């Protein structure tokens, strides 16, 4: 629900800042107490080499990289839903069959989405198990704010 | 006393593992100045549902088959299969590491098997390596860690006597 589009105002309006603040505080209520258990998003190391093959891998693995970057992990305010194989919805359809991976859907607002966009994987809870980014669900607008949902899944049944 | 039974199989896998690791170390694969995640060596295949660390190298025993050398003889050619799986972080790394392991096997067609339970780890017997094959299993990847998975298979011939 946008505030306006193509010259037309939305039929209703809400106090976006106040609502966003309230929802964020609700999300914080649902986060674990321990920082190490909060949803944390990670990026892969991106490296370039001066002497490399067509896939940008070095010919000599002891060569120092030309450039190297790896954003620091972030743990933004998010809400999340956890799905285990038994009783979950949706499957990953592959050539060799359908696979139901353990997965998490993270829900967040614009600033948080900007901070996690492009992340490779996330961790959550007491386990260090990696949940890999798979896709973005269609963004949903609520007045003047946008709600994003991002789907991550683990490699396995646990 | 000569190794026999399951302990013989275990020493065989251990000897091959140590030989491969030793040769890879000589080439520099486990050095501290490598620009890739460390190579981790395991001797058990990941359990179903378990995600191995990136760049895990697994050397494991496969099935084996016996055959009589001649009618009435108690000795036989015992054929064992060894699998070496590498779950690499990139296609280039998988290709290069498995190629180096292939070279190790081809240049050591007769390999000693040591008795690691005895003082001094003496050589107990020799085996012959052959029927090597390498398969890049990228197209069958269903999980993240299998994206650059390479599998090397080879046969081991062990001449056994069942007295």
Overall description:
The complex is a heterodimer of chains A (158) and B (163). Chain A is an alpha+beta fold and 158 residues long. Chain A has helices at residues 16-30, 110-116, and strands at residues 4-5, 8-9, 40-42, 46-48, 67-69, 79-83, 92-94, 97-99, 103-108, 121-123, 131-136, 140-142, 145-154. Chain A is globular and about 60 Å long. The mean pLDDT of chain A is 86. Helices cover 24% and strands 37% of the residues of chain B. The model of chain B has no long low-confidence stretch (mean pLDDT 88). The two termini of chain B are 13 Å apart. Chain B has a 6-stranded mixed beta sheet. Classes of the chains: A alpha+beta (158), B alpha+beta (163). The A-B interface holds A 47, 53, 55, 57-58, 61-65, 92, 94, 96, 99, 129-130, 132, 154-158 and B 28, 31, 33-36, 48-51, 90-93, 96, 140, 142-145.
Could you write a compact summary of the structure shown?
Chain A is of the alpha+beta class. Helices cover about 15% and strands about 35% of the residues of chain A.
Summary keywords:
heterodimer; A: 158 residues; alpha+beta; seven-stranded antiparallel beta sheet; two-stranded antiparallel sheet; 2 helices; B: 163 residues; six-stranded mixed beta sheet; 6 strands; 37% strand
Kindly report how far apart the N and C termini of chain A lie. 37 Å
* Mean pLDDT over all positions of chain B: 88
Secondary-structure element order of chain B, N to C: HEEEHEEE
Low-confidence stretches of chain A: none
Q: Number of DSSP helices of chain B?
A: 2
Number of strands of chain B: 6
Strand content of chain B: 35-45%
Helix content of chain B: 10-25%
**What radius of gyration of chain B results from the CA coordinates?**
17 Å
> So what's the overall shape of chain B?
globular
Number of helices in the DSSP assignment of chain A: 2
Distance between the termini of chain B: 13 Å
Please state the average pLDDT score of chain A. Answer: 86
Largest interface pair: A-B, 22 and 20 residues
Radius of gyration of chain A from the CA trace?
Answer: 20 Å
How much of the sequence lies in strands of chain A comes to: 25-35%
Helicity range of chain A: 10-25%
